[in-house]
């Protein structure tokens, strides 16, 4: 099979508009819409409207394709897509998060021009509880094969054992029985094992095993031969790793493994939902650098690029199917399509995931209320059985909120209000359906950490036990109060904290280390995202700590912001996980003197690693120190602010801001120094500093360019933000923005105000050559940097 990228020169327009433009895929139409306070999706969608969109691609099908099979693969189109080839409907998908393939053989005009038209309907909002994006937001490829060929995703590789290493390779090919299938295992281009047959086993000599610590990948090359001639070839990357689980723990290749996890949404920040390979790779790399070894795709299947990045970096992945089943959480969401499509969409995810060693668990849903009643349990068991029929090598889990299921069993489910109130409206009740996500967030804010114990009662245990015991690993969302109980109540049950508050990481991690049946913790969230506006943000302008009004944009729950910068919560988790080699100093913003901050239950602090707040001398300052030590001492400009014992790896100091240097020294119980670190203020005149993450890239790829406002000593200044403008020569600016959670500025406008001294540009290189990126500010002048595309 020959895979050919098919992302260039698509014509795009919004239905009803005469304005057409040429775009390169992946493309998010929603991020280019005008945000408004009155859009029906509201804060859940970040106040972006949806719409109906059209994509058109013209191309020539060469005559030699007559003897081939040609298909088109869409990795993800949001939402309700229909694909037309030369005016004839050829396929499509309601769900926006799974790949689908269309064979084009019956539609093509060979030797002449062909037209592919894709219509996308994302006009009915709300259809999700977060920012979805719109359009062909994941890549598109052509798949060109001989008539007799290995079918799409037709090679499946399974690890049977790791000591010694044995694998099974199964091949599905559209050929007659006399065809021969040759399987070769390659290590750095060298064949180390081979065999033949559709279903065969191979021993791998001196195998290097795949894990989060050793993400070693092999290649499996499968060739289809007929009369000693190779007809078709498919090459798959894979890792040798075996997963087992029991109440004794989660084992990867026989080694007990604890999951240092985080949840993430599918958007790429300032790029919107556009799924560039480098964007996904960058996210995984940054999260791995900050101590994570596991991710949960919330709450939909991850992209192929994300899977590949997790494979390369050694990141375990819980890939999740759906946020809802048949009980809708939003008026127009996938719940309307669930009963007809859940099997096909689940299969699409598993078929794609099968050869990726990073995928260790499949989640059948997030916080679904249905299993609170018998019919929901029946469905859940049917889904588990279906997943197992497709892949028995991985654990099946689900992000189960015990409180939600318990309430649903009592007839008090907040997520069935959509259906109930639509029935009322049909009976001439003028009230609009309540926002189910808003109801849950409101409840979580009021209950707070108490939600962790809302599932502890015997009644809730009786309601939830049928579905939890049916899962291989029971995922608990905000139910850490159950962790100590399950060893006695349910001695055979294996559990994972599938969604937890980040600031509770110390308590949760102590339990992960203590209880073998608790295999890990996934905080909400590892990376910030668009939509659910202000859910986790701390605000100095007041208001409810959830569903904040326009122009709030970001969720604010991420311990890494949308630009990729870690905050104090992230660095605290690193410390708790014993991944930080020296004390961490974090400071709550000191540039809001006398203003009471409005807090969110999802965030324990808004501190960042900065002691550079120009013009704030004398303001009250709260300094947080994190260290895996017995005690710490903090110095300000050489003067000791005292020694403190660390409690739960944390100590807090209150002082007054003064420019200069903070220094923290960590000590063991005997007073010996374990490590020290410093934070200093920016000095001298401020300037713009550009730090492209690469100086040489491939043509057709993108480059990330972090932008900082720094002093002459190179230190980022957190209190000198101003509007910056970007210009690009030789390339295309895709996006420019900051991590400001509340703004009316646009990521596609080429200008944006820095936030706490930082911004980010993403530039596309359409062809080889030099790319010059320039950033200017009224008080800061202009700085430029060059990147080469080859």
UniProtKB/TrEMBL annotation:
SUPFAM superfamilies: (Trans)glycosidases (SSF51445), beta-Galactosidase/glucuronidase domain (SSF49303), Galactose-binding domain-like (SSF49785). Belongs to the glycosyl hydrolase 2 family. GO terms for biological process: carbohydrate metabolic process. Residues 618-673 form the DUF4982 domain. It comes from the Bacteria. Residues 248-397 form the Glycoside hydrolase family 2 catalytic domain. Residues 688-785 form the Glycoside hydrolase family domain. This is Glycosyl hydrolase family 2, sugar binding domain protein. Gene3D superfamilies: Galactose-binding domain-like, Glycosidases, Immunoglobulins. Residues 171-241 form the Glycoside hydrolase family 2 immunoglobulin-like beta-sandwich domain. The lineage of its organism: Bacteria, Bacillati, Bacillota, Clostridia, Lachnospirales. The keyword Hydrolase applies. GO terms for molecular function: hydrolase activity, hydrolyzing O-glycosyl compounds. Residues 52-146 form the Glycosyl hydrolases family 2 sugar binding domain. Keywords: Glycosidase, Hydrolase.
């Amino acid at each position: 099979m020959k895979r050919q990228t098919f992302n260039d020169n698509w014509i795009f327009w919004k239905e009803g508009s005469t304005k057409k433009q040429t775009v390169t895929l992946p493309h998010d139409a929603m991020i280019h819409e005008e945000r408004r306070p009155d859009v029906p999706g509201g804060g859940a969608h970040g106040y972006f409207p949806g719409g109906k969109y059209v994509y058109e691609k013209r191309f020539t099908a060469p005559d030699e394709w007559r003897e081939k099979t040609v298909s088109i693969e869409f990795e993800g189109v949001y939402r309700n897509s229909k694909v037309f080839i030369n005016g004839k409907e050829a396929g499509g998908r309601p769900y926006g998060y799974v790949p689908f393939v269309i064979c084009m053989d019956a539609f093509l005009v060979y030797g002449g021009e062909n037209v592919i038209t894709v219509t996308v309907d994302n006009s009915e909002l709300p259809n999700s509880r977060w920012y979805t994006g719109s359009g062909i937001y994941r890549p598109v490829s052509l798949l060109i094969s001989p008539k007799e060929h290995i079918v799409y995703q037709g090679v499946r590789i399974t690890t049977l054992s790791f000591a010694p290493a044995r694998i099974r390779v199964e091949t599905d090919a559209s050929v007659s029985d006399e065809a021969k299938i040759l399987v070769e295992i390659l290590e750095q281009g060298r064949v180390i094992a081979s065999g033949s047959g559709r279903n065969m086993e191979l021993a791998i000599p001196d195998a290097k095993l795949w894990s989060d610590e050793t993400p070693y990948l092999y290649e499996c090359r499968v060739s289809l031969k007929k009369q000693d001639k190779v007809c078709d070839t498919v090459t798959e990357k894979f890792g040798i790793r075996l997963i087992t689980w029991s109440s004794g723990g989660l084992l990867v290749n026989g080694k007990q493994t604890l999951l240092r996890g985080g949840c993430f949404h599918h958007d790429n920040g300032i790029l919107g939902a556009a799924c560039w390979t480098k964007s996904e790779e960058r996210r995984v790399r940054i999260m791995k650098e900050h101590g994570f070894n596991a991710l949960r795709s919330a709450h939909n299947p991850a992209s192929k690029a994300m899977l590949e990045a997790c494979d390369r970096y050694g990141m375990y992945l819980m890939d999740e199917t759906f946020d809802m089943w048949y009980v809708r959480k939003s008026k127009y969401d996938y719940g309307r399509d669930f009963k007809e499509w859940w099997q096909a969409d689940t299969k699409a995810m598993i078929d794609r995931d099968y050869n990726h060693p990073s995928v260790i668990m499949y989640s059948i849903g997030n916080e679904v209320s249905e299993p609170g009643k018998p019919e929901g349990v029946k469905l859940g068991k049917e889904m588990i059985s279906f997943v197992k029929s497709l892949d028995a090598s991985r654990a099946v889990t689900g992000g189960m909120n015990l409180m939600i299921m318990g309430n649903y069993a009592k007839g008090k489910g907040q997520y069935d209000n959509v259906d109930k109130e639509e029935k009322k409206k049909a009976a001439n009740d003028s009230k609009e359906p309540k926002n189910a996500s808003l109801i849950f967030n409101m409840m979580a804010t009021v209950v707070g950490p108490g939600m962790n114990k809302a599932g502890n009662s015997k009644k809730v245990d009786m309601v939830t036990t049928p579905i939890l015991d049916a899962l291989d690993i029971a995922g608990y969302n905000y139910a850490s109060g159950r962790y100590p109980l399950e060893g006695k109540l349910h001695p055979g049950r294996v559990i994972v904290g599938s969604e937890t508050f980040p600031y509770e990481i110390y308590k949760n991690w102590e339990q992960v280390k203590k209880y073998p049946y608790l295999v890990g913790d996934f905080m909400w969230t590892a990376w910030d995202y668009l939509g659910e506006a202000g859910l986790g943000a701390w605000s100095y302008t007041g208001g409810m700590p959830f569903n904040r009004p326009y122009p709030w944009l970001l969720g604010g729950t991420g311990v890494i912001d949308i630009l990729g910068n870690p905050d104090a919560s992230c660095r605290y988790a690193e410390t708790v996980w014993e991944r930080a080699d020296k004390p961490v100093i974090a400071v709550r913003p000191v540039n809001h003197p006398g203003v009471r901050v409005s807090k969110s239950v999802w965030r324990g602090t808004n501190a960042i690693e900065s002691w550079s707040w120009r013009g704030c001398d004398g303001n009250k300052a709260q300094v947080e120190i994190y260290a895996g030590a017995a005690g710490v001492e903090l110095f300000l400009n050489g003067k000791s602010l005292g020694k403190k014992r660390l409690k739960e790896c944390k100590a807090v100091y209150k002082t007054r801001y003064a420019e200069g240097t903070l220094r923290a020294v960590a000590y063991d119980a005997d007073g010996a120094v374990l490590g020290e670190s410093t934070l200093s203020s920016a000095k001298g005149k401020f300037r713009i500093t550009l730090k492209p993450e690469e100086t040489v890239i491939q043509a057709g790829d993108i480059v990330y360019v972090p932008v900082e406002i720094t002093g002459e000593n190179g230190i980022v200044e957190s209190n000198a933000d101003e509007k910056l403008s970007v210009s690009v020569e030789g390339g295309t600016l895709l996006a420019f923005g900051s991590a400001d959670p509340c703004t009316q500025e646009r990521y596609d406008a080429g200008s944006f105000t820095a936030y706490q001294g930082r911004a980010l540009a993403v530039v596309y290189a359409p062809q080889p050559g030099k790319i010059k990126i320039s950033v200017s500010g009224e008080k800061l002048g202009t700085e430029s940097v060059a990147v080469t595309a080859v």
